[in-house]
Each structure stands twice: as structure tokens, then as C-alpha cells.
Amino acid sequence: MRLVLLGAPGSGKGTQAARLKTALGVPHISTGDLLRAAVAAGTALGVQAKAVMEAGRLVSDAIVLGMLEERLAQPDARAGFILDGYPRNLAQVQALDALLARTRQPLDAVVKLRVPSEAIIARTELRHKAEGRADDDPATVRKRLQVYTEQTAPVAEHYTRAGTLRVVDGVGTLDEVFARIMAALGKAPAAAAVR
Ligand code: AMP
């Protein structure tokens, strides 16, 4: 299964991807996690990305594509992947299309988690307190939401036009949202998940 998860920052993509990874048996590839690892490791690329991420803006397409290509070339991604945080603008849609066409790995599905902005702001505030992510402070979240509206919302429109987008209500418990995603993928969730 090759799946793209779309949704605003704080919509629960990362949390659901961790769960989907076990259910679908494919790796969770988050460009945000790849970038945070590069920042933590202090690589040249991480140093370049840090300030941009802390400002809530998008890291350059070339840097992110390079990291993604490298990750997708690892053996575990042959079985498929759950892509979280990519593509984030229309140029990245084209880059992903070209990459997957070259490796003959077309996407199976694109799922968007729909969460109202008030819930996003509340969730990222909680995450800021719990995890201390610098870009979860309220001012940066507002900037990230603006970037999402301007640059990432057109990505969902692109997949709607292509007929591949499935929109899932992202408000609810982890189990509820997980069950909705599995249903949207045409897969029965594990018994424990439905309750
Ligand atoms: P995330 O964890 O997906 O919210 O990503 C955290 C930050 O990493 C974003 O606010 C961006 O600065 C950067 N980032 C993650 N994915 C991308 C991407 N596909 N393109 C550009 N920047 C990205």
C-alpha cells in the first residue's frame, strides 16, 4: 500500500500514521521527522533547515526531495509507505509523481484528515506543552496554518481533481479516526480498533 496522508499541522497525521504502519505493514515516512533528525544530528542540511522550520515556513523543495528519495530507496519502502508531510505544495506533487513514475510505484490512495482550525490550535498547544516542539508555539502555528492554506490546500485540490482524494473526519478518538481511515481505504479495521 502506497498512501499519502494530508491534513493541516496538528490534524493527527503522525499519530494515525504510527497506527497505520502496524496495520498495513509499511513504513511511516514523515518529512518533518526526517528534517528534525537532520537538525538533531547537526548535519549541514539540518543547520540550513532549522531556522526555516522554527519560522513555520517550508524548507526548500530540493532539500526535502533529496531526503525523501534517499528514504524511499531503502529496502523497507519496497513494500509501500505511508507518506506524512509530503507533498506540501504543487511543485512537490509534480516531483513525487515523477519519482513514483520512475520507480513504477503509483500511489494507491490519498487520504486527507479534516480538522477545524480551532481544534488544530488547541491540539498544537497541548503538543507544545507535552513535547516542546519550537514550531508549535501559537504564533508559529498561525504561520504554519497560513502556509498550509496558501501552499498545501491546492495539493488536496489536485488530488480531488485526479479522483484519488478521500476526505476523513479527523475529529474523534484515535480509534474512531483510525477506523474511518481504514474504511476509506476499503480495509476492515482490526477488531480492537472498532470496539
Ligand atoms: P511537520 O512535522 O510535517 O509538521 O513538519 C515540520 C516542519 O518541517 C514544517 O513546518 C516545515 O518547515 C518542514 N517540512 C516538513 N515537510 C516538509 C515538506 N514536504 N516541504 C517543506 N518543508 C517541510
Task: Please describe the structure with a list of short key phrases separated by commas or semicolons.
Rossmann fold; binds adenosine monophosphate; alpha/beta; about 200 residues; 5-stranded parallel β-sheet
Helices and strands in order, then pairings?
Elements (H helix, E strand, L loop, with lengths): L1 E5 L6 H12 L3 E3 H11 L2 H11 L6 H12 L8 E4 L5 H13 L6 E6 L2 H15 L6 H25 L2 E5 L4 H11 L6 H4 L1
Parallel strand pairs: 1-3, 1-4, 2-3, 4-5
Helix pairs in contact: 1-8, 2-3, 6-7
The structure holds adenosine monophosphate.
The site of adenosine monophosphate has 17 residues, from helix 2 and helix 3.
Spatial strand sequence of the major β-sheet: 2-3-1-4-5
H/E series, N to C?
EHEHHHEHEHHEHH
CATH architecture name of the largest domain: 3-Layer(aba) Sandwich
Name given to the CATH homologous superfamily of the largest domain:
P-loop containing nucleotide triphosphate hydrolases
Q: What's the total helix number?
A: 9
Name the bound molecules.
Answer: adenosine monophosphate
Indicate the CATH topology of the largest domain. Answer: Rossmann fold
Give the strand tally.
5
CATH top level label of the largest domain: Alpha Beta
Shape field: globular
Biggest sheet layout: 5 strands, parallel
Describe the fold and architecture.
The protein has 2 domains: 141 residues, P-loop containing nucleotide triphosphate hydrolases (Rossmann fold, 3-Layer(aba) Sandwich), CATH 3.40.50; 44 residues, no CATH class. The protein has 9 helices and 5 strands, in the order βαβαααβαβααβαα. It has a 5-stranded parallel beta sheet, with helices on both faces. It is α/β, with parallel strands linked by helices. Helix 1 crosses helix 8, helix 2 packs across helix 3 and helix 6 crosses helix 7. The structure holds adenosine monophosphate (AMP). Adenosine monophosphate binds next to helix 2 and helix 3. Adenosine monophosphate (AMP) binds next to helix 2 and helix 3.
